[in-house]
Amino acid sequence: KQKDLLKIIKDASYYLSKISEKQNRFKNAYQYHIIYQEAKDSLLNAEKIKILEETEAKYNLEKLEYEKLKVENAALTAEKQIAKQKIFIGLLGIVLVIGGAFFGRYFYKKQKEKKEEKEKSVILKRRIDLLNNQLSAKNRELTSKALLISNNNRVLEEAVESIEQYLSSANSDKKELRKLKSRLQNIYEEESWADFVKHFEDVHPNFYKNITEKYPNLSAGELKICAFLKMNLNTKEISQVTNQTIKSIEVARTRIRKNLALTTAKV
Fold first, then answer.
1. Does residue 106 lie in a domain region?
2. Are residues 56 and 148 in the same domain?
């Protein structure tokens, strides 16, 4: 029966091979030809079929074992990969916790420093505003002192004029009156100017020291005018304070410019 079956297979595969070849289905023709050849060989040697079947069975078994081993290795690799991922996730979690704590502390520190800097800035601004207010008050006080000197100078001038009138008409000791007039002028001018200088140097420290060291040739009168110019007083205002004519002040300013080697009208 087996031989009959092989003969049928041989004949059928032969005809199918020829038909496929005529239909240009060369791949099928080739496959049928192989079957034909195998069937033919099987008829000649039945043992060969048995060996072939055993070989094929062995191959399939080895293939199954290989696939099984491959699956087992893949599973083991997957387990190792999962274990590595768990370790990585754990380490990453630790790093994130430590990093979060560090950056939280860093952020808190920066916010605290920023707050402290802001508070310092507010305090500094208040101090600057206070100093500016004090400076403005000092400047106003200084200007008031200058105006007071001007007013007192006018009062003194009136007193001196009264003494002059008395000297021209009275028969009293004119020599003593002249001494009194001169002494009155000197004492008042010295006291008024000393008081002014004290307040001026509170507002502009070392002004006289610096200018006298740099320009030692300036006279006392020129130094006074420099002080008034530092206060931003104009020629007319300086004239009123010092009881000098505007022309005299202009001449003095020209002389100061020359001593200070200035080419522009900064003085």
1. no
2. no
